[in-house]
Amino acid sequence: MIRRMLSLTLATSLFCVWISITASLGQTSAGKVIEISAEDLGKQFAPDTTEAAKLYQGKVLRVTGKVSMANEPFVYLSTGHNFPTGQPVQITLEYSKVTMPKIAVGDRLTVEGKFDRTAIFGPLLVQNRILKREQNGKVMPLEGSTTTSPKTSTKKRGITSKKADQPLVPVVARDSQSILLLFDGQLGEGEPGFRANCTSFRLRFGPGNWTGTKIGKAIAWGDGNKGQDHWGEGSGEPTFSSELRRDERGTYFVFSLNGDDWESDHVAAMFRVTLPDGKLGVATALISVTREP
Predict the structure, then answer these.
(1) Which residues are 288's β-sheet partners?
(2) Where are the beta strands (DSSP E) in 21-83?
(3) 132 lies in the same domain as 219
(4) Boundary residue ending a domain (120, 139, 158)
(5) CA angle in degrees (0–180, nearest 5) for 49-54-57
(6) Confidence of residue 17 (pLDDT cuts 50, 70, 90)
């Protein structure tokens, strides 16, 4: 009888220990939310993206930082740090057309999202949820802040027309010689500016008078084809930039990449520009590629 009672007591104790360990392991695998500033996260990714990515793979982060750029379907938070190449590290928040939040450059956000991978500009967070938004120190209401990031399509990319049908998020240059361009859709065959045997996109300037600005050499990189999608100087694949154009939405130009059978879903492009006063400047754009359904 005593032996049976001792056995039952031991079994009960072991069961309790098992429950405790299981709960602990579950908590570890699920992971607690990691609170970190955009500046500190950028500081970790600047010298070594591989090691930093290992720390956060699959983890949920709560990041606070200032919006530096917003090109549908992405919002970027500045970090104040640069990669060894000199390119700024930016926290990339992925949304969809439906869930793109109503924010502006300069807003201070606290966002909760899951680290997915290192993207072109820095760490990429998906399934983002805005917890707080401040504008000029004032807390603003949250609109369109919850997202479920779509999976990247693996279908063959098609040449389809896609023009934004919502008001564009303001894009503000840091100064007159450093320009952030806004991606405003992919051109379909027959649309003004479409270039045969190429993939063409509209890129817009922010508010202001850009008359006389000239687009010079361009270089672009894609995130597909194992890093082999590359255009411009040193790539062997040409790029083409049209003259500046104007419509009811402002100033833009058409940027075309040679070929229509490459694999990237996102393309980062940089341009040399000559401003109306003769000064040289640079411009950047992040392009989201349209695929056939």
Answers:
(1) 266
(2) 34-37, 60-71, 74-82
(3) no
(4) 139
(5) 110
(6) very low
What global pTM score does this model have? 0.47
Counting the structural domains of the chain, the total is: 2
Residues 6+ apart with CB under 8 A from 64: 37, 38, 108, 109, 110, 111, 132
In one-letter notation, the amino acid at residue 139 is V
Note whether 284 and 171 are within 8 A (CB): no
Span of 19-33, 90-104, 129-143, 246-260 with lowest mean pLDDT? 19-33
CA dist., res. 4 & res. 193, Å (int)? 86
Instruction: Please give the C-alpha separations between residue 163 and each of 9, 179, 268, 275, 287, in angstroms, as whole numbers.
Output: 70, 21, 19, 27, 13
* pLDDT, the chain, mean: 77
d(CA 103, CA 160): 28
CA distance 51 to 67: 25
